[in-house]
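Entries read sequence, tokenised fold; example below:

***
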Amino acid sequence: MIVAQVELDSNNAASSRNVGDNNLTSLDFTPTRVENTYYRDLLYKRGVLHSDQQLFKGQGSESDKLVQLYSKNPFAFASDFKTSLIKMGNIKPLTGRQGKIQLNCRRVR
């Protein structure tokens, strides 16, 4: 399988290095607000992580359409975000013989 690679804006990567520790950067520059800066940044190839930028490749995919919608309409993002959090909160984990809850997800038993 060939995966299309999206180049990140090199100026954005360079400015992130000046924030502090060379090995660390903030993954969310507005951690106390739910807003759409993340999606606007993807339009300009300023995704923090390569995997983030894969949401928007500019090829007309379904994820491209969502990124464009959310970048222009913060209320659409906030509404969908709220709905998804409620859905995730309603997930009932399987317990007993039907499932297993790991105490440490990094360890396989």
